[in-house]
Design goal:
Removes the phosphate from trehalose 6-phosphate to produce free trehalose. With 265 residues, this protein is of the alpha/beta class. The chain is built from 9 helices and 11 strands. The strands form 2 sheets. It has a 7-stranded parallel β-sheet, with helices on both faces.
Length: 265
């Protein structure tokens, strides 16, 4: 990965951003710092202000692992596209399929609750997000043992889910559910935006970074470790600076696609 605020990275950013660019972001770990209690995440004030400015002048999409309702509560504004459940919720034309996903998640939750130890005793938390499930183990006393136990139980689930590991969490998706990469491509087709810039921070975002498209610029939060993203930020604190530069570049290209939020309120 190339550091985005290097001379090479800044040249790439300047050449990529124009009136037709779609701006897409993950939420946890990207717009908001990771915290021990997922319910307590908060987008820093300066970051939120710049994000709202960008939202006024460009097509912005938030593609989060949270449900749309949960993500909206933490955003404090309405982007044109708010996609939840790692891409499974809120995409145009997927409404009927979403009901099937809800039913699968209820079945999985019952199976997990039957075979995993109680959260009060183990620190393992099962979170039903409607169309996906997340099994958190950040608060366990032995994370290595916890994840082995979780994976053993996941292997017995019926129907078998897609599994996307995250930071101290195992995310479970219905086999037919779109992931973040497919979600981003569908938004591009729906809006007519020929290119997209995406910022994410963990394994769930690699689904976008692995797309072999010159029309997608992938930026990872965190330069340590391996990733298929072309560029990186050192940490989440640099998001505010990045958003400020995006706003400045967009000011050079007035116009673009008019703002109209997609999906239910």
């Amino acid at each position: 990965m190339i550091y985005l605020f290097s001379e090479t990275g800044q040249a790439a950013l300047r050449s990529f951003v124009d009136r037709s660019t779609l701006f897409a972001f993950d939420l946890d770990g990207t717009l908001a710092p990771i915290v021990a209690d997922p319910a307590r995440i908060e987008i820093p004030k300066e970051t939120k202000e710049k994000l709202i400015d960008l939202n006024r002048m460009a097509t912005v999409a938030i593609i989060s692992g949270r449900s749309r309702t949960d993500a909206r509560n933490h955003l404090g504004f309405t982007p044109r596209f708010l996609i939840g459940n790692h891409g499974a919720e809120g995409l145009p034309g997927r409404e009927k399929q979403e009901e099937e996903f809800r039913g699968q998640c209820i079945k999985w939750q019952k199976q997990l609750e039957r075979f995993l130890p109680l959260a009060s005793e183990s620190g393992i938390l099962i979170e039903n997000k409607g169309m996906t499930l997340s099994v958190h183990y950040r608060r366990t006393s032995n994370q290595e043992a916890a994840v082995m136990n979780i994976l053993e139980v996941i292997g017995q689930l019926k129907p078998f889910p897609k599994r996307i590991p995250g930071k101290c969490v195992e995310n479970l998706l219905p086999a037919e559910a779109p992931r973040k990469g497919e979600a981003l491509l569908q938004i591009m087709r729906h809006t007519g935006c020929p290119k997209a810039l995406f910022v994410g921070d963990d394994a769930t975002d690699e689904d976008v970074f692995r797309l072999d498209h010159d029309s997608i610029l992938g930026i990872r939060v965190g330069c340590e470790g391996s990733s298929l993203a072309a560029y990186c930020l050192k940490d989440q604190k640099e998001m505010s600076d990045l958003l400020g530069r995006m706003v400045s570049l967009k000011n050079l290209y007035p116009g673009g696609i008019p703002f109209e939020p997609y999906g239910p309120p």
